[in-house]
Amino acid sequence: MNSNPLVSIIIPTYNRASLIGETLNSILAQTYTNWECIIVDDGSTDNTEFVIYKYVDLDSRFKLYHRPADRIKGANACRNFGFELSEGKYIQYLDSDDYISLNKIEEQVNQLEKCDINTIAICKWQFFENLSNINNENKELNVYRNFDSILDFIDALALSGGFLPAHTYLLNRQLVLNSGNWMERLVINQDGEFFARIFTKTNRVVFVPNVMVYYRRNHIDNISVLNNEKKLEHAIISWQLIESYFKIHFGESTRLVSISKKYLYQRVVKENIKIIKKNQLFFKEEILHKDFFFIRIFKKIIKAK
Fold this sequence. Notes:
This protein has helices at residues 20-28, 48-58, 75-85, 104-112, 150-158, 173-179, 190-200, 229-250, 255-271, 273-278, 284-304; strands at 7-13, 35-41, 62-66, 90-93, 99-100, 119-128, 171-172, 204-216. The chain is of the alpha/beta class. It has 2 domains: 7-216, Spore Coat Polysaccharide Biosynthesis Protein SpsA, Chain A; 229-304, no CATH class.
């Protein structure tokens, strides 16, 4: 066991000149010092590169790369390229507009160093809009505890909003290798699909209670929104994949998939009903439930007459 293993922090970025400095400051402030920060620019057209070079000049642990021209554009391709360049025993994925508490890396490394490679570390998280209005809310979630069963963790995740942001996790490099790359052509729920594969290789989850990460919301370029047909279709594809992974590895779909499918069905029905028709088999339970509900209402109306 190496008491001071290298941690690779991998950040994809695109046009984040106004925000990435806050993210990099949170890395620079880490109490754990043996890290490398691999930043992969996805072709920014603003001053993002200029901001990053200030940190590269300041500290050699920051490294800036550009997505190769022969790689598909997107954050996932940048994450995969960054991973290929990384050398750390542990992998920290971080988006270029998010933020981590100064003890994040140290506390999670300390826990994972006591565990095997198939253990993942998690921590608390909260939304924020800017650093000046962080309120350090301490909302307790069902998932904020240790798990010796990954299925129990997935079930708790379903009862805790359905996800943890990618930067709540610290992962063993070998676990990432065993799970496979980020899916580069998926345009939404990329983290859900990626971590579903991580979960199928995970035996145990350790929760580090005195650590917090911050997930920015309401940014104008945030793409985690189902606002067009392609995103709706890719959201469905992502959950089809997740359901298949869980059925193959666990022999069941899980409550997480069931709840997520219901939510997704409600969203898709509102936005684009023809997509439901194309995915009737996937949504068969939701469609049957909807039809049964309206039949009951219709019978009540007839009876009332």
